[in-house]
Specification:
This protein is mainly alpha-helical. The protein has one domain. The chain contains five helices and no strands.
């Protein structure tokens, strides 16, 4: 059962990260005219979140594959990644989720859901 929770959470958060990366040019255009510095900063931050989410998914998946779902390593990695996802969910709840954009409003819930999957899998 733990393997299913880890793999499901890893896949969900990885693809949520990919969902940040692919539309980046369109997202940036949606802000309208920006200074070059502001365009670069928003691009960097948008890509950084997507890359972080992908990394979390890959890290948990790799840890489970390499050491098994019941290892101390996976317990540590799963809980640490859950903590990071909860921190990111809180940040999203106070920023992007306060917009009218549906995917931004879903971010805190998806991150929290995956964190819960990882936490349940570690107990």
């Amino acid at each position: 059962m733990e393997v299913i929770l880890f793999y499901t959470g890893s896949a969900v958060i990885f693809f949520w990260g990919v969902g940040h990366l692919i539309p980046t040019p369109g997202i940036i255009r949606g802000f309208g005219p920006l200074s070059e510095d502001n365009r670069r900063i928003i691009t960097m931050e948008w890509l950084a979140e997507g890359m972080t989410l992908c990394f979390i998914g890959v890290l948990v998946f790799a840890a489970v594959v390499m050491t098994g779902p019941a290892s101390q390593t996976v317990t540590f990695v799963g809980r640490a990644c859950a903590g990071m996802l909860l921190a990111m969910a809180a940040l999203s709840a106070f920023t992007g989720a306060r917009t009218s954009i549906l995917p931004m409003r879903l971010c805190p819930f998806i991150k929290s859901l995956v964190a819960v999957l990882f936490l349940i899998a570690t107990f």
